Amino acid sequence: MIERDLLRQQWLKQYRAPGFYKNLVVNILLSITGLYFAFILVGLGLLFPVIAKEAAPEQAASDVLNGLIIYTGLGVLIFRYFMQSLNTVDQQPYQILPIKRSTLVNYVLLTPLLNPFNYISLLFFVPVSISIISKSYGVWGTCQFIFMNIFMIWFNVLFATWLKRKYESTLWGTLFIMLIAGGLFLLEYFKVFSLFDISKISLHFLLSKNFGIALILTFPLIAFALNKQYFNKNYYTEKFTRKVLSTRSHTGSNAFFERFGKVGEIIMLMIKLVWRNKRTKSTLTVSLLFLLYGFLGYSGLYDDSKGFMYFVAMIVAGNFMLMFSQWLISWNGSHFDSLMTKSIDAREYISAHYFLMLFLNVISFIITTPYFFFGKYVIFLQVSAFLFNSGVILPLCMIFATFNTKRLELNEGSAMNYQGTTYKNFIYVMIIMILPSIIIAVANKLGIANTVIWIYAVMGLIGIMFTKQLIDLCTQQFLRRKYALCEGFRKKEA
């Protein structure tokens, strides 16, 4: 079969690529992380009856489960819209062969359904269906529930693909989706419109009828038809081209940055780099989602876990900086040799990166000030995390960036894309993000968590006061690693 040959050729292309073995350590770490979350999902599935009884003692566990299904589906759909990478195939070698266009389109659309990671949610739904659904709806109802979830996975994969191809992960699209999600949450919270009740009634009806599974199957079929219709209109490459927006429409006047001399010019160029390239734009879009992480950490569920709350505060108060700092310098990898031949002083180059990250940190903090309504302690956490990010984490990010010698391919999206990622990135996350939170967690056991948080704030304030000296330190580290960076960036991953 042609589809089987296409699968085999794509696998050989990945397997024979030089980068396959270079990224082996990263793939192993990702697999271990996947096993960890798989274990958590199975445990949640087994413990869900207990959790449902404690959360809603007045309702049956099956009603709670049914009521959460639509919310779960919407959440996964939004996550896929931002994080799911689009499946592609190099069309040109096949267009001169006797292969039907519909065959290539079907391959592109249906191949993601074979990815086992798409079905990881079944590790939760299978145990919970056996423990809850089987008692209320019998064996056939249990089978229907499992297959309904499989069909909804297909729908989410296909519909998210259609949304992403049609509307792309634009900034306005992100804000629109966040507005819808926030609106549904507020309507549910103020009991104006309950999606929970609609989901509960709908699932009860579908599981009670023998034809319920057939109704759910229509959803992925409709999503598949939408994708086919899209490809019928946009199959050829020239159909995907778009007008390039002017620089002024994205960045405005350069007068503000010109007053800072060459450092300002470099910052302006880096802002253009963020706006003009797919990888950086999609990273900016995804980072907006993490701003909502505070609703999880500050909701009151983790008031006794000071370490986790500070971890959330660090993410929320410095989200943009933390997202981009992983690839500082390496985002210049494709033109790094040329950059090093220009009349740019190393300190000016480092200062531009430093102040750009500081600016992003300030933006994150300002945007997330509405979390202050959660109470005085949240204000304390946010301010401490902002100071710690600005004075301690930022210079550490600059130093760690000099060890990443993998160039970043800016023309690729960031969704499920680990190109440019090495084991050093995991070490970076462990030291910069997790270690401070662990220290607070230990201090919380000793009853001195607030003291440690104050110490972090003071350390950050001292770091801000000595910004000039820290930039000098980062510049010296950059000069020591400059030629190693040049050599590493010349190697392009296949």
SSE topology:
Blueprint: H1 2-15, H2 19-22, H3 24-55, H4 61-83, H5 92-95, H6 101-110, H7 122-167, H8 171-189, H9 195-208, H10 212-233, H11 247-251, H12 255-258, H13 261-276, H14 278-290, H15 294-297, H16 306-317, H17 319-325, H18 336-340, H19 346-367, H20 376-401, H21 423-446, H22 449-465, H23 467-489
Helix pairs in contact: 3-4, 3-7, 4-7, 4-9, 7-10, 8-14, 13-14, 13-19, 14-17, 16-20, 16-21, 17-19, 19-20, 19-23, 20-22, 20-23, 21-22
Question: How do you describe this structure in short?
Answer:
This protein is mainly alpha-helical. It has helices spanning 2-15, 19-22, 24-55, 61-83, 92-95, 101-110, 122-167, 171-189, 195-208, 212-233, 247-251, 255-258, 261-276, 278-290, 294-297, 306-317, 319-325, 336-340, 346-367, 376-401, 423-446, 449-465, 467-489. It is built from 23 helices and no strands.
